[in-house]
Design a protein that fits this description.
There is one protein chain. With about 325 residues, the chain is of the alpha/beta class. It has two domains: about 240 residues, Alpha/Beta hydrolase fold, catalytic domain (Rossmann fold), CATH 3.40.50; about 80 residues, no CATH class. The chain contains twelve helices and eight strands. It has an eight-stranded mixed sheet with strand order 1-2-4-3-5-6-7-8, sandwiched between helices. Strand 5, helix 4 and strand 6 form a beta-alpha-beta unit.
């Protein structure tokens, strides 16, 4: 039944599509610089630390619609986006996986001065230029931390963007922390919450009991709503391969409250200046406040909100709604 849904929605969206004329055109890689490596390119970027390389991988050809995926973390990997492989090719959407510097298959320099929002924004801009994307075709999707990066990129380089998707990310870390404390925490088992808070107070984050409690009370309820031992392999791989140093430096050590370099980040007052077509995506059980993410869409002149019944990774636990809404938005923009 789900396969019938997927094929049906894609067929409907392809009607009148201005992208590739056929699937053979979509998969025609003749003349592409990345042909030899199956779409993979290591892109050299300039940084204050000198040149480094970041990993990207293209799927498909569509002159009118090219989607760059910004993973979360900070410093997780692109792998958990692999569910998109089941939908975007059939919809004729060209898309790019990308491991940000310090993560996944990209270089991992040991220099804490690199892990700032402006430096990451400059990195995305260099990747865009290297991939040959421009305002006629370039869309950007940021999930979680990637949503922060997508907002910041749009504010800095809006003239280079065709559309922006902010997936499962609020526009304010202080607002997120308030939501976590006032809405998420009361939903925990009281005894478990007390134990979690005691472990955090003692800064005993490496205690296996800490992750055991969070997995049951937080991860399986608000990150991906299925038993953790049934999580898809790409999700587990992304968690296993993340860079904990960068993650802790920027996000903080707590899995329940953001701190670190992102603690005071807030762009709520600037959303109105993002005038390109924009989509915000939230989940009823998300770690992020879905009402805030719906409000974000209303602040942007060409904003739209997609609500799901999923969690922070709604592209797994409410895949039908997420993919239908995402593809519909992209086809409208195209």
């Amino acid at each position: 039944m789900f396969r019938q849904f997927a094929l049906g929605v894609v067929a409907a969206l392809l009607a009148g599509c201005s992208g590739p004329a056929s699937q053979s055109d979509y998969f025609d890689n003749a003349g592409r610089e990345d042909l030899l490596a199956g779409g993979v390119r290591m892109i050299e970027i300039d940084t204050p630390d000198g040149p480094h390389k970041v990993w990207t991988k293209r799927t498909g050809n569509n002159p009118a619609l090219k989607l760059l995926l910004l993973h979360g973390g900070p410093a997780f990997t692109h792998d958990y986006f692999q569910a998109f492989d089941s939908f975007l090719p059939a919809a004729g959407i060209e898309y790019y996986y990308y491991d940000q510097l310090g993560a996944g298959r990209s270089d991992r320099p040991d220099n804490d001065d690199l892990w700032t929002i402006p430096r990451f924004v400059d990195e995305v801009e260099q990747v865009r230029v290297a991939l040959g994307l421009d305002a006629t075709n370039f869309c950007i999707l940021g999930h979680s931390w990637g949503g922060i990066l997508a907002i910041e990129y749009a504010l800095a380089h809006q003239d280079k963007v065709k559309c922006v998707i902010i997936s499962n990310m609020m526009a304010s870390i202080p607002a997120y922390n308030q939501y976590a404390a006032e809405v998420l925490a009361p939903g925990f088992d009281p005894a478990a919450l007390s134990e979690i808070m005691a472990l955090e107070e003692a800064k005993n984050y490496s205690n296996p009991r800490y992750m055991e409690l969070l997995t049951k009370e937080h991860y399986e309820k608000h990150i991906l709503r299925m038993p953790a031992d049934e999580w898809p392999e790409p999700v587990n791989h992304a968690f296993a391969m993340h860079n904990p140093h960068i993650y802790t430096l920027m996000q903080g050590p707590s899995e329940f409250r953001a701190s670190g370099r992102l603690e005071n980040w807030d762009r709520t007052a600037d959303l109105a200046t993002i005038t390109v077509p924009a989509l915000t995506i939230g989940g009823a059980y998300d770690t992020m406040d879905p009402k805030h993410m719906e409000w974000m869409a209303g602040q942007m002149p060409n904003g739209r909100y997609l609500g799901t019944s999923g969690s922070h990774m709604a592209f797994y636990d409410d895949q039908e709604t997420y993919m239908r809404g995402l593809i519909g938005f992209l086809k409208d923009v195209e």
